[in-house]
Amino acid sequence: MFTMMAGILVFSLLLAACGSSNTGSSTTPTTGASSVGPNGKGCKKAGILLPETATSERWDHKDRPLLIADITKALGTAPFFNNAQGSASTQQTQAEADLANGACILVLAPFDSIQAASIVAAAKAKGVPVISYDRLTYSADLNYYVSFDNTKVGALQGGYVADNYKSFVTANGTTNTVMINGAQTDNNALLFAAGAHSALDPLFSSGALKKVYEKFTPGWDKWEGACHGPGCDSSRYPEHP
Predict the structure, then answer these.
(1) Sign of the CA dihedral 167, 173, 174, 177?
(2) Span 97-117, mean pLDDT?
(3) pLDDT tens track for 136-189
(4) Residue 15 needs a FRET pair 20 to 30 A away by CA distance; which of 28, 44, 45, 60 works?
């Protein structure tokens, strides 16, 4: 559902950004970034930059087809598509290639919210607006940010535990609680954690639950997430690469 709603918002932003400026000219715009107006006015070629596929199938199976379809509809031409496969440096290279090939709007879901600021800077130098999609890019030069209420998502996750923890405690005979968060380089993970804490901290403070461990997971790596905590035995996961 989020992917569909975010796609609609990106579609709306693209329509607003790429609408031709009312200059009285009937010249057909070209695809190069240098030929478009401020904020991507008249743009006909966008670049999509997605972060990875390792942690969620949504990026390739949901976001990719919906973004390509909506952007093609908005601009009249298919966008460049890239997936960084979990590498900030790869995403930087992909963005630079899109800009060199004439992309005049970038839709960026950063793998690393901090390092991706250099992508925004490179785009700004060419007068190309950047829409940060799903994940926030830490840059004051960002043009748009499309996401969902990440704090609310975390609160719903924590709220489920708050509503059901008594049955877990009864079944397992312990109040020990472990929190495994996402990557600190993804702003969403920080907001998820903050939302979850809003629901769980009162239980930790009262002693109803005991938080014994909490850690963020570099790169949202599923194997790191599966084997967190003191005494974790990675041999339990023979498929670990």
Answers:
(1) negative
(2) 97
(3) 999 999 999 999 999 999 999 999 999 999 999 999 999 999 999 999 989 999
(4) 60
The enclosing H or E element of 173 equals none
Average pLDDT estimate for 117-131: 97
The secondary structure of residue 228, as a DSSP letter, is -
Of 25, 75, 81, the residue nearest 53 (C-alpha): 81
pLDDT value, residue 133? 96
The closest alpha carbon to 128, from 117, 143, 116, 138, belongs to 143
Question: Which is it for the CA torsion 215, 217, 223, 225, positive or negative?
Answer: positive
Give the angle subtended at the CA of 168 by the CAs of 164 and 197, to the nearest 5°.
55
The dihedral built from the CA positions of residue 53, 59, 62 and 64, taken in this order, carries a sign that is negative
| pLDDT classification of 223: cutoffs 50, 70, 90 | confident
Residues 47, 50: Cα–Cα separation, whole Å = 10
For residue 75, the model assigns a pLDDT of 93
* H or E stretch at 80: strand 80-83
Q: List, in sequence order, every beta strand (DSSP E) within the chain.
A: 46-50, 80-83, 105-108, 130-133, 144-146, 176-181, 210-216
Domains of the chain: residue spans and CATH: 2-19+30-146 (3.40.50.2300), 150-228 (3.40.50.2300)
DSSP state of 21: P
The confidence score (pLDDT) of residue 241 equals 56
Reference 10, options 125, 186, 134; nearest CA is: 134
DSSP secondary structure string, 85-143? TT-HHHHHHHHHHHHHTT--EEEE--SSTTTTHHHHHHHHHTT--EEEESS----TT--
